[in-house]
Amino acid sequence: MAQNSFFLVFLGGGLGSVTRYAVSRYVQPWLGPSFPAGTLLVNVVASLVLGLVAGWMAGRQGGETVRLLVGVGFCGGLSTFSTFSTDTLALLQQGRILSAILNILLNVVLCLLVSWLGFAAGLHKLRSIL
After folding, report:
1. Is the pLDDT of residue 126 over 70?
2. Cβ proximity of 16 and 82 under 8 Å
3. Rounded to two decimals, what is the model's pTM?
4. Residue 62 — left, alpha, or beta (φ > 0 → left; ψ -120 to 50 → alpha)?
5. Which value, in Å, is the radius of gyration of the alpha carbons in the chain?
6. Is the distance from CB of 24 to CB of 39 less than 8 angstroms?
7. 3-state DSSP of the chain
8. What is the pLDDT of residue 49?
9. Alpha carbons 114 and 112: distance in angstroms, whole number
């Protein structure tokens, strides 16, 4: 299982990273360069998906493949704390204090909210399906 687990994380991480790149390449220009909305979007989506996985797995036996592929790999590759940090630093360096504060608040509050919603949905809805 150890070799298989590394492969699952590798595969999920690659898919998550490619998805993050696609979002930054195609969505950010559409939204405009004035706010790092692409980074916010991938962080929120990754938080929601990881919440769903965590809720689905809570109290379950098994599911290690899903946890490694989707939770650790895909969500780890998709979300990006480092880009969030450097985006916020760039806003501060540009003197855009309110945008920096908004970026911090939106990333933290929205990601926590969707993680909680995803966990609740995964705990209740996905269990009844599976």
Report:
1. no
2. no
3. 0.88
4. left
5. 16
6. yes
7. CHHHHHHHHHHHHHHHHHHHHHHHHHHHHHHCCCCCHHHHHHHHHHHHHHHHHHHHHCCCCCCHHHHHHHHHHHHHHHCCHHHHHHHHHHHHHCCCHHHHHHHHHHHHHHHHHHHHHHHHHHHHHHHHHC
8. 96
9. 6
